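Consider what follows.

. . .
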Amino acid sequence: MPENLTDTVRLLVVSREPSVLRPLWSVGESNSWHLETAGSGWEALERIQSGTDPDVLLLDLPRGDADSLHVLRWLRRVRPELPIILLSHAEDIAREKEAMRLGAQDFLVRPFEEQRLESVIRRHLSCSIDEPSGFTSENIEQLSEDAFFLGASPIMQKLRAQAELLAQADVPVLIVGEPGSGRDTTARLIHKLSVRSGFRFLKVNCAALSGDLLERELFGYAGDFSKKNDLPIPGKLELCERGTILLDEIVEMPLSLQEKLFRVMQEKQLLRPGTTEYVDVDVRILAAGNINIDRAPSEQKLREDLYYRLSAFTVHVPALRQRRDEIPVLLQHFMHKLSRHYGLPPREFSPAVLEACQRHSWPGNVRELESFVKRYLMIGDDELNGSDRAENDLFGTYEPSSLLSNGSSTSKYQFEGLGNGKSLKSLINDVKSEAERNAIAAALERTGWNRKAAARLLKVSYRTMLYKIEQYQMTASDSYSIPLVGGNGFKGNGNSLKGNGKTN
């Protein structure tokens, strides 16, 4: 990876207009970026085919030039990973949207502010240059700052092809898969590849809100009419005009709201709350659910008419265990992303860890893998020695026998918690977490919240201390009930956070 962006940055600008080139020359000179120009899109394509390798291409769309849009399609085939930024006029919105559908990543409207111009270029450079060495960037498709689609396996390449076809058909789509497998990412991919990509993409988790709140979130609510000029508050269906909305966990939506949603999908209109006014709604509905969503109609969780309307076009997102060849790429991607976020040097994954990751079933899918990488960045794999216990610790899971053998007093939690339907394993994890949290709190209190001193006191690394403080959401203003005595407590025995005498 280059030490900084100035070492490798090459910009290719497709324009002949001085008003476009002047600010770009200024930005390029101030950053020591290498700037090349091409008179047309076809000239730029020829250069790239002959070996020119820019990091970002800036494509000017002058009025009356239709060829540049055709070139976009070819550029996407030749260099699918190349970030393309459009430079256009404010009134040329229709061509901008078509260009985004054909593969452009961003657009800037004239006149250009140099600061804004530099910011947009840097954002796309961070995606193309900051990837770790050995990465095949053509497999990673950036959908937003936080979302990306990885097509490194045949099954995911097939999914992307299916998404591209569905993107062209402006119809509702049902996205089915396990939680954390990438249902949200698939929805964003469909949106980005569609003609609606220039407009909003919004997501609503139907399981996270009560029925009343969900109705307000989707359909809006009446304003306070005791105040003058207080208009109805629009919901996301109205706010997402001409865009795409994802309804995650659709089976958790109350049946009464499902009926209301179905009527909006049928009539393309909704009644503004508190009024008699109907407004047109032009929004694409994507819905997501678990792999057993087909049982929902018979279980009275999903209206049949809504289910059949949604499921006419269905996408199945495979679980991570069905695409294990993507695990090394995902590990590398998340490691470099998170290390940049936390300002820490990235860790290398040892062969033992990579082997363990390939064996792991990943019940939480990609979401679980990202959490694992975050933990690994902080803690590493010093404890991994090939044993089952060590592998359980590596993935944040613990076997009951490993804690019972430490002599921890768990009877109170067993007998009180089992009556509430908790498993023995979850109860033991609760005990361990509480003891660990109390030990950290005691160390922080004793050191006046000096985290480095607390880490030395507990004989753990500073990384581990930061990770645990974030994991337990601890702050200096919190008040803790801290046991300072006892065989497995914090005081006097020098035990590590794991309660087994090891150092993390």
User: Anything to note?
Assistant: The mean pLDDT is 77. The two ends are 29 Å apart (CA to CA). The chain has 20 helices and 14 strands.
